[in-house]
Amino acid sequence: MRALTRIGILVALAALAVGVLAATGVANPLGKGSQPEKVKVLDDFFKPTNVKIKKNKKVTWKWGNDFNTHNVTLKKGPKGVKKSKFSSQTSSAEGFKFTKKFKKPGKYNFYCTIHPDVMKMTVKVKG
Amino acid sequence: MRFRLVAVLAVFVVGGAIFSASASAKGRDVFKVCKHGCKYSSVQKAVDKVKKGSKSMVKIKPGTYHEGVIMGGHKYDDLIITGTKSAKKTILDGKNARIQGQPAQNGIDAVNVDGLKIKKLWARNFPTNGLFVHADPGDHCHGFAMDKDWASFNGSYGLFAKHCTGGKITNSKGWGQGDSAIYIGETPPQDNPKWTDIGNDKMYENVLGYSGTNSKYVDIHDSLVYNNGAGVVPNTLDSEKFQPNADGKIRNNDIFWNNFNYFLPKSPVKTVSGGLGMIGDRTVNYPTGVGVVLFGSDGWLVKNNNIFGNFMWGAASFSDPFNTAAVNMNNTFVDNKMGKNGTDKNQSDFFNDGSGKGNCFKGNASSSFYVSPTASHPQSFLYPNCPAPNSAGTGTNQGDGANNLKGQVGALASLVLADPACSQQDLWLRHSHPDFKGLTPIDTKDFGKCKKPAP
Questions:
Q1: Is the CB of residue B183 less than 8 Å from the CB of residue B210?
Q2: pLDDT digits (tens, 9 = 90+) for B360-416
Q3: Closest-CA residue in chain A for B132?
Q4: CB contact under 8 A, A8 and B272
C-alpha cells in the first residue's frame, strides 16, 4: 500500500500541476555542457518527458522523495541497442540514481514497467 | 608410495567435490555459493551461469552476502535458490551491496520468471525490497514460492510479489519494513484463479503486516500478525493496475497488538509513505491501532481469526470516497473471536463506514460495533447480519457522513487526518495486555513523545 494518486480536491489540483509539469517538454536541447541531462523519477511520472542530447552525452535519472516503486526501462531504441543495458533497478529509494551514456544516435523510448501506462519518456540522440 | 598415490587421489576427489562448477542433485545442476572455497563467491555470479532454471539449483552456504541479485526472463523458470541451512544463517544484506556499480535496491529482483522458488534466505537492509518477484506488462510470473524466508528492515516491502498469478509465501517472517512484511499486488483477474497461499507466517513491527494493493485470490491463514501499525490490509488504489482488490480470505490468524506508532521520533521503523494523499492541508496517513483493514475490498472472507488488543479497531471496513473503483462490498466477517474473551479488548471490535452493499457480520464472539454519535444510519444499516439485506449499505463508495465529514467517515477522517500523525494515538484506548506466547507488546516500548506544534 502506498500513495493514492488522487484523493480530494487538492489532489485534483496536484494532478493538474503534474499535467502542467509533464507538458513542459524538452529539457536543455541537445544537452549543451558536460553535465548529464537530469530526469526526475516521481509518482508516477518522469520529468521532463522529452530529452534531446548529442551522442556520447549522458542522462541521469534521479528518484525523488515520492514513495512508489519505479524503474527506468528501455522499451524501444535504435537498432542494435541492447535493452538490458538501458534498464535500471527497481527502486523506491529517494536519491537513487541511474546514469547512461548514449553512444548511438536515434530515438529511445523509456517507461516504468511498474506504471507502464503513465510513466513514459523519450530521449532523442543526435549524431 | 602406494599410500601416497591413494592420498593424492583422495585429495583430488575431495577437491573435485568442493570446487566443481556444478554437481548433479535431484536431476538438477547445483551451483554452490559460499564465501570461500566454492566456484561462486556471490549469488549473482551463480545465477548468471544458470542456463535452464528447471534443471538448476543455486545452493548458498551460510554467510552474509552483501549483494543484491537480479534475474530476468523465462530461462530461469522453475529455478530453486536456497540456503543450505536456515534463513538465520544465510543472509543477503543490503548494506554496502552494489549491482553494476550502483547500490543494490533489492535482495532478489526476479522479473518474468515462472515457478521461482526462494528458500531459507534472509534479505535485510535493502533500500527498496527484500525478495521481489514480478512481471512486466504482458508477461507473467506464475507460481512463485518463498518458503522459510526472512525479511527485515527493508525500505518498502519484505517479501513481495506483484503482477503474479498463484504462488505462496509460507513459514516465513518479516519485521521492520517501511511498508509491509508481505505484499501481494496487482493480481491479474483470472477466470480460473490460481490462489496465493500466505500461511504460517509471522509479520510484526512493520508499518503494515500484510498489504495487498489490488490483490486477488489471496488466502492469508494460520499466521501471527502483531505489533504492526495496522495488521492485514488488502486495499485498492488507482496507482496500480487491476482494481479492485477482491476475492480473498483472512482466516485462522492471530491478529493482535497492532499498535505500532511508527510516527514517533525514536521509532526504529519509518514509513516509506508520505501518506495516502491530501485533503485540504492535511495529509491522509495510514491508520494505526487496527487489526484488519478492508479498504475498497470486494468479496473478502474474514473468518475464525483471533483479533485482540488493537487500540483502535479490531477490524475496519471502508471505501475510498474519491475512487469509485474502491467500494467495499460483499465482505463477510464471520466467527471471529474478538477481544480474547474480554481480557484483551479492541477499543471497538468492528468499524464500518456503511458504504457499499453486501457487507455483513455474523457469529463473531464478544462483538462491539462502533457507531458514531453523529452517524445518520443505525447499527442495522452499518453492521447487518449475514446475509446482508439490500437495505443495508449505501451501495456506493460514499459512506455514512461522507458528504460533510461526520458520522462514520468523520470518525475515520479524525484518525487518518490526525496532525501530527503520531497523535493518532490520542484516539486509541490503551490498556495492558495479558501474556500471549511470551511476546512483548510494542506499546510497552518507548519511542519518544509525540511533539505537537504550539497552539
A1: yes
A2: 999 999 889 999 999 999 999 999 999 999 999 999 999 999 999 999 999 999 999
A3: A90
A4: no
Burial B244-272 (b: 16+ CB within 10 A, else e): bbbbbbbbebbbbbbbbbbbbeebebebb
Provide the whole-model pTM: 0.90
By the 10 Å C-beta count (0-12 exposed, 13-18 middle, 19+ buried), A124 is classed as middle
- pLDDT value of residue A66: 79
Q: Radius of gyration of chain B from Cα atoms?
A: 24
Q: Which positions ≥6 away from A80 have C-beta within 8 Å? A: A104
**B382 φ, ψ (degrees, to nearest 5):** -85, -35
Find the mean pLDDT for residues A42-55. Answer: 95
Structural domains in chain A, sorted by start? 8-126 (2.60.40.420)
* Domain extent for B421: 41-444
Q: Do B273 and A2 touch (CB under 8 A)?
A: yes
Q: What is the DSSP string of B179-194?
A: SEEEEEE-PPP-SSPP
pLDDT band at B11 (very low <50, low <70, confident <90, very high): very low
**Is the Cβ–Cβ distance between B161 and B133 less than 8 Å?**
yes
* Model confidence at B237: pLDDT above 90: yes
Confidence of residue B201 (pLDDT cuts 50, 70, 90): very high
CA distance B129 to B160: 7
Residue A34 has what pLDDT?
62
C-alpha cell at A106: 536515434
DSSP string, B378-419: -HHHHSPPSSPPTTSS-SSS--TTTTTT-HHHHHHHHHHT-S
Residue B200 lies in a domain: yes
B21: in domain: no
ipTM, interface predicted TM-score of the complex? 0.81
pLDDT tens profile B345-357: 999 999 999 999 9
What SS3 state is found at A37?
strand
Asked, for residue B166, whether it belongs to a domain, the answer is yes
Nearest-CB residue to B239 (from A44, A73, A84): A44
Categorize the per-residue pLDDT at B10 as very low, low, confident or very high, splitting at 50, 70 and 90. Answer: very low
- The pLDDT > 90 percentage for chain B reads 88
Q: Based on the structure, what is the number of domains in chain B?
A: 1
Q: Is B30 on the interface with A (CB under 8 A)?
A: no
Q: Which helix (H) or strand (E) holds A113?
A: none
- Report yes or no on B36 lying in a domain: no
Chain B, nearest residue to A89 by Cα: B105
Q: Which of B68, B156, B280 sits opposite A10 (nearest CB)?
A: B280
Give the three-class secondary structure for B106: strand
Query: Residue B108 is part of a domain; what is its CATH number?
Result: 2.160.20
Whether B184 and chain A come into contact, CB under 8 Å, resolves to no
Tell me the residue type at A110. F
